[in-house]
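Human
Can I borrow your eye for a moment on a structure tokenisation matter? Give me a protein, with the fold worked out from its sequence. Write it directly below this note and I will take it from there.

Assistant
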Amino acid sequence: MILKGKLYAESPIYRGNARKTLFTRDNDGTHRLVSLAGEVEGTAQALMDAFVGQSKNRKNIGLINQLWQRLYGEALPANLIEKVECRLQKESYPQNNFFDLRMGIKLDEDRWAAEANANYKMETVLRNSVFDFILSVRDAMLQRDGNEARLYHVLEEMKAGRFWFGAGKSKGMGRVRLEMDIPFSGTKAPAAKPGANYLKVDMIFNAQNPLMVGWNWGKVDPYSPSFSAIEGRLMISAMKYIPDFIRTRLEMTLGGPILSPQDWKQKFAETLPRITAVCLKECSAEEKEFWVLPAAGLAKLSKGKHALTKKLVSKLETLAEQPFQSREEAEAAFTEACGKKANMVGRITDELEQRRESVQGMNPQAWAAVADGLGLDKSLGEKLAQASEEADMIKILTPACQSVLPQLYDQVDQQIRLLQSDAWVDAEISTREEHLLIKTMLESGNIKEYQWNDPGMPPKGIRSATWREFLSAHSRVQYRHMLNAQNLKKSIVNDRNHIEFLNRYREQTRQELSQPHHIDFRAGGPGNREISRKYGKPYDTIFMRMLCWKPSSKEHGTYEVYIPGSTIKGAFRKRASMILGTLWGESRKTVYVLNRMFGTQGQRGMVFFSDAYLSDPADSGRSWCSADGIRMNPKTGQPVETAKRDYLFAYGDQLVFHIRLDIQDIEEKDIEILSLLYHLIEDFQNGDIAVGGEKANGYGWAEASVSGLTWLTADPKGITQKLFGKNKLKTDGIWQKLSLEGQAAAEALKPLAPLSAEAKNDAPPVARGGFVSHRAFGGYCGTLSVEAEVLTPMNIQESGEPSLTVKLPEGPVNGWDFFSISPPDADRRGNERIYALPSRSIKGMLRHIYSIATDSKKESSDIRKLNPAESLFGWVGNAPNQAIMGRVSFSYGKFEVLNQEPAWFKVPYPYGNWHYAGGQWKNSPGVPATRFLIGDTWRLFTHAPLAPIARQVGAFEPDTVQARYFRAILPGERARFTIRFWNLLKEELQRLLWCVTLEPGLAHKMGNNRYLGFGSLRLNILEDSFLIDWSKRYSGKNDWRKPLDAKKLPDPKKIVNYSELKKALEMRSEK
């Protein structure tokens, strides 16, 4: 009997060598066709999944064999299934038969940051792809011993989507669902193995708390050298709005290879005015045609037998050498001069000469194209028109071009960054090409056996390092086996496929990153005042996405946002390891429980974590918000231009992610492990498990909810009673089934037993490197609930496009609203905006104060010797494994309710001549701006009332381009945010509390125009702040929160630069 159906990839599938990247191709890989293996066979196949069969050592058993054994407690009858075929349908192949690339990183337990050289890469068949599934069954065996009913229910499990194929099953991959009309029935359900059971937990969470799971692509690794050649031509082509007639000349002059970007920029600065002057002269040079009666011609007419009369010649002398625009115009003038002698006009016009001459002027169209494209002042056109020499034009253009060079340099840096991004691809391709060369030399007999056995004898043309690395990778392969023609040919084809796949996929990701909605808003145009995507670059970080198959996508996959199961599993595992490390220490019991739940090398985890998919994958523009990360120079208080980053993150209850946890065959001994899982689910519901990146900046602390639960068991007693008590089960095929939804499902997942403390660890854990570790909880942990009260008008500029823009004759003027958690496009922001203090701004402000309070002047160069501020707030070094996450996390400070509308302000610039001294503002032209520096390292803006130059206006009605217009939150408004902290020493907590609350009469500063009195605010720690008692945290009681006395704990004696800080932060208006 042949059974036919379709197998749907409910999630991406990878089948291949764990050390490789490519999905294993059929035959030798030349045609790049794929299938899911029917039977375990061959040396390599014995290491990968197949539907039926088993390897010689019986370590790899077919998945249907495993399912049969699991359901019925006995082996799949021999010869029942003759053959399984599962080939990908032609329609599910993307262009070139290459698929998606899934990547992941491993986080170091101590640093909670990426571990070098511990990532994985897998080419995965696209989600929603369809395979043709053919199952050949031997009729005689099917009729024996109830095999028909048993096979029916095995196939029913596959139809229900409780079947996984390939690698990464516990990380969201490999789940498939069968569609098949089974030609026989299983009305009389066979007896299932008593210990067989299955638990599925469905959960949902939205982005009401911001989420940032960053895509791996478009990144520049500072530790990896770039293999990409950089040419000036590419840099100039990236300067989008340079007119073509100038671009062509620039490419001819500066289009060659770039050895030093800085040197090239200098040459460009010198060349741009000169090339612009040359091109303008060429465009403005005009040849003029005209007709002339030459003096010699007139003299000729006055002589001879039929000479003109002297009187007529006298009249024509005034017209000689006079230019006429056309022959007709000359003829008319001659006719008028001849009067009654008009019959002579023909003879006169015969003497006309047509002449040409160059006329120099300013071509208005060419100058307009230059001024608009480069953003130059159009009024310079008059000066340029008067300049007769090229050198004079260069003198006029040079200072004008200097003002637009920064934005052009930004475009150069963006192009270099794009070319240097994902350098690991170039490195891997280079290695593959070298391996390919070695294999082709083996194939052609150019490498002998004595060389194969000697790492010190690289073949001609092969680098020693490459040869040693290749031999190490093939250390278990003998020379004669390496020469096997079939295997060697397949290996060569795989390398070629691998190289092409990486090149094509990177190109595809760059196209995705260059989509208009992934381009940020940047300043450009005249005076750098126009804010537009046309001057932008791809966001530094966009949300994770994968290619999915859809009928409408034709030969290309469609990108869809998701959160990898590995990310969710990693977040759960990190929380579990920190909890158990705190309560049980680094014990065998801890290791066993973690390995049983999450798996380890050679052992699959008990819990399968799915990917998190959106309920509505259609991209909702209003749910993707932007934020900027700007590093401030501590000495100047100004932004560091090279350290700006921007992000597109998920926010809002419209973005709902669905995940599921699948657990098979829970045993009595797993009760404690299951109880831990239930505790983790509770933590996820309470927002205590952070998913994704930017955790220290408040992202990822999502609050999930249990939406459903399904329990299937063959035994309604035993473990079912312990887990679900007296809930009634219904018969469903071979199973007894319990289905719960919503609150009932959540109640059923209450922890079965408390987690008791078996180890005492009051101090923060310390790693071998001497820094405070994230391996477990210790020291002071808890949450500060903070209220921020605005004391003087405050503006933090919104991210992306300005909300309002007005065009004046001198250029555009932008009206900036206060920062809100909103999309970057102004037209996508609703009226009900959520104004907030950005988490990065709060963190940056407090880190600045903490650095002064701990005298953290010297920047750290090694993770083993961190200064106090970098130890607490986090640090990124300049080498692999030299980064550590901070031990504090700041949420956004939302203004939930505003008592008054934000007001518009106008601030003309420059304003550095205004000074606040002696309790009043004074305008002192020529006197530099006042700076308050502590330790010649940290600048602080002192408090003052608003300067007279800053004026509140009724609406955004700009009248000059020499001013900044913005909306500010007014005094009296309050925002709330939280600070999570863990593993703090007592003095660290004391300093942190002092830096937050300061003292009576002191206040903080945040936002723009602080120099002019804007941005004063006071922070107050609220009563719902608490410390965590970990010995009681999972005891089942609610007394684990300990009160935190924010007034008594801070100790000014722990504060370095105390008197200077008090002087700088004094709120003079409160005297």
Residues 780-1070 form one domain.
